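User: Let's play a game. I give you a shape written as tokens, and you guess the letters that built it. Ready? Here's round one.
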């Protein structure tokens, strides 16, 4: 009768009664055991949890700082990419200063940026800038831009002593560093900042440093919002030399050394320098010191996490005698009941247990068929069958994802299907990572393309000729080939005749061949003339009919896209580059041409100056030769004049002597006549 009644009871009741009894027994025993022996184990778990928290926030802080280190690295590499060590840089000091000013204008947490070059390492013009109010007595290129107010950027005059503390070390080891926190004052107000120093290197040669002053308040905010252990846990960030960077416990100590804050600072400094993690439990706190390893920076920082002991200590109260008796009674009761039901409960579940064990280890090649001893057993049997099918499906889906098929459709069994939803998240994450990787490769390809193009054209411009037509042909031939356009032309601003100022076409290239054409465009006339006046790039995707025609051996055709880029130097127009193509030009290609246009404008300006100088030299030489010829003719005339004067003087003397002789003869004759008359 008893056994018959037991069979009628649902299996979940049987399991429920057993589990409840076991839970009561386990809880009672656990309470007693925890109170007696398990305090240290609980503390160990709390320590491990605290270490995990410290590790997480140290990685978050390191990532936050690394973005500014990467920004400094990017700025240094950008300057190196436009700097040719053997020759002059493609950017002058004013352009670099403009670059630095624009850099910090849109960087929220960067308060200042500085650049300090070795003597004559930037443009070899230090002598020209000596005793300058901006560059000091040496003329070294050193510039420091800082935010002096809302949307205001200022530059401080050169100050030699400013860079001394953190200039020598990067110069010696050629590695970046972070200067401990210090006060940055603007208009009498002080802000705590870190200075990131990054060396400017070219093929291993030290050229100078880039400095970024970064506000620390962002790090303070990150640890303020951590909200660990009911907001009672406190965190402190410490730099490599023991300076407090940020602290939720003692914010007034930020910028000071930890010896004013912690009694065990010597032990903490030693752990910091060894970049090791340690924990310590005293009467009041659980202290966790965890290193903050910043990529590219040799000396680590440290994060100290302090958790009040009251938050982690076990809240164990004494168990009264009545509780002890109750626990003993429950234990005895559970033993009796468990022994009574064990044999009956295990008999129908034995086969299902074996099946579940095989499924647990991933074995889906099983035959699920248990003995039908009740409704619940049938339900479990069906559930295990469905579970087997789900495991098989998930295995196939995972195999497809492993093969790289990220477009496969995955349908979860329901909103609570953790495994199915996790598989979907994994597929989406892999798909997103793949897309990001493809985008990164495209961006890298664009940057490499632009860098190689700048290097190519810098070489063309560096080997410039005094013949502007040759220079223009080299430039346009290189542009048409590098951009794979169909036609290009270069117009140069001609103001030799002030009554006829115009744009003169000096070179035109189509389908890789030079076209000898003559064309003048007046300022304000058509697209070219308008572009010259407005000094802005013009990009057209629809060209007026018959505006331009590209001719090849196959006939003529109108291009689809037109790009006009003005060549501007110091707000003065020097010419215009015209490119026409059947294919659309990408934004990065247009930006590349605009950047290159600055260098081309500078080179054309220099070439025109050289040509004018050579013409002046030739004119001066010719005038000198003419003057020498005139001087020789005058000398010969003077000699002939002198000879004539001497001849005239000789003749005059002869005439005087002849006149004297005639007078004497006349007197003698008169005297003889007087004698005859007598």
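Assistant: Ready! My guess for every position:
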């Amino acid at each position: 009768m008893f056994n018959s009644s037991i069979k009628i009871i649902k299996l979940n009741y049987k399991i429920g009664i057993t589990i409840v009894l076991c839970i009561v027994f386990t809880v009672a025993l656990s309470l007693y055991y925890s109170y007696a022996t398990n305090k240290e184990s609980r503390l160990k778990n709390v320590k491990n949890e605290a270490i995990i928290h410290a590790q997480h926030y140290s990685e978050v802080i390191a990532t936050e700082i690394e973005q500014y280190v990467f920004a400094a690295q990017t700025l240094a590499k950008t300057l190196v990419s436009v700097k040719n060590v053997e020759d002059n840089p493609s950017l002058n000091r004013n352009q670099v200063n403009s670059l630095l000013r624009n850099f910090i204008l849109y960087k929220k947490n960067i308060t200042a940026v500085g650049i300090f070059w070795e003597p004559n390492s930037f443009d070899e013009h230090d002598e020209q800038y000596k005793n300058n109010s901006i560059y000091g007595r040496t003329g070294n290129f050193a510039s420091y831009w800082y935010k002096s107010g809302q949307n205001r950027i200022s530059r401080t005059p050169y100050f030699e002593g400013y860079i001394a503390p953190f200039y020598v070390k990067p110069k010696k080891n050629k590695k970046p560093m972070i200067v401990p926190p210090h006060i940055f004052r603007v208009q009498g107000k002080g802000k705590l900042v870190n200075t990131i120093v990054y060396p400017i290197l070219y093929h291993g040669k030290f050229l100078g440093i880039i400095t970024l002053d970064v506000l620390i308040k962002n790090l303070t905010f990150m640890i303020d919002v951590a909200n660990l252990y009911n907001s009672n846990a406190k965190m402190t960030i410490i730099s490599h030399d023991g300076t407090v960077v940020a602290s939720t416990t003692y914010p007034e100590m930020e910028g000071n050394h930890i010896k004013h804050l912690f009694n065990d600072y010597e032990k903490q400094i030693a752990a910091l320098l060894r970049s090791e993690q340690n924990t310590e439990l005293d009467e009041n706190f659980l202290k966790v010191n965890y290193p903050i390893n910043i990529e590219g920076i040799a000396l680590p920082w440290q994060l100290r996490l302090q958790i009040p002991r009251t938050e982690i200590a076990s809240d164990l109260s004494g168990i009264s005698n009545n509780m002890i008796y109750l626990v003993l009674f429950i234990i005895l009761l559970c033993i009796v009941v468990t022994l009574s039901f064990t044999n009956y409960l295990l008999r129908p579940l034995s086969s299902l247990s074996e099946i579940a064990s095989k499924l647990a280890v991933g074995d889906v090649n099983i035959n699920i068929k248990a003995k039908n001893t009740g409704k619940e057993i049938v339900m479990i049997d069906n559930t295990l069958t469905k579970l087997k099918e789900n495991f098989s499906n998930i295995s196939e889906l995972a195999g497809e994802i492993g093969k790289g098929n990220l477009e496969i459709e995955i349908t979860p069994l329901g909103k609570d299907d953790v495994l199915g939803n996790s598989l979907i998240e994994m597929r989406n994450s892999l798909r997103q990572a793949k897309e990001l990787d493809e985008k990164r490769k495209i961006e890298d390809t664009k940057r490499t393309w632009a860098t190689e193009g700048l290097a190519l054209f810098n070489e063309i411009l560096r080997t410039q000729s005094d013949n502007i037509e040759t220079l223009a042909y080299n430039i346009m031939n290189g542009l048409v080939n590098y951009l794979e356009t169909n036609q290009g032309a270069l117009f140069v601003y001609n103001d030799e005749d002030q009554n006829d100022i115009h744009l003169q076409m000096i070179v035109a290239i189509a389908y890789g061949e030079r076209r000898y054409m003559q064309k003048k465009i007046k300022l304000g006339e058509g697209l070219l003339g308008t572009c010259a006046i407005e000094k802005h790039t013009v990009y057209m995707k629809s060209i007026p009919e018959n505006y331009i025609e590209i001719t090849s051996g196959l006939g003529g055709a109108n291009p689809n896209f037109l790009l006009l880029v003005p060549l501007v130097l110091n707000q003065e127009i020097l010419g215009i580059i015209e490119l026409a193509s059947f294919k659309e030009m990408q934004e990065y290609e247009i930006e590349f041409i605009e950047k290159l246009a600055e260098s081309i404008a500078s080179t054309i300006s220099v070439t025109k100056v050289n040509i004018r100088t050579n013409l002046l030299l030739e004119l001066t030489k010719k005038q000198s030769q003419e003057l020498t010829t005139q001087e020789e003719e005058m000398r010969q005339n003077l000699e002939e004049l002198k000879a004539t004067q001497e001849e005239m003087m000789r003749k005059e003397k002869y005439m005087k002597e002849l006149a004297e002789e005639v007078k004497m003869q006349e007197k003698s004759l008169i005297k003889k006549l007087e004698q005859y008359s007598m």
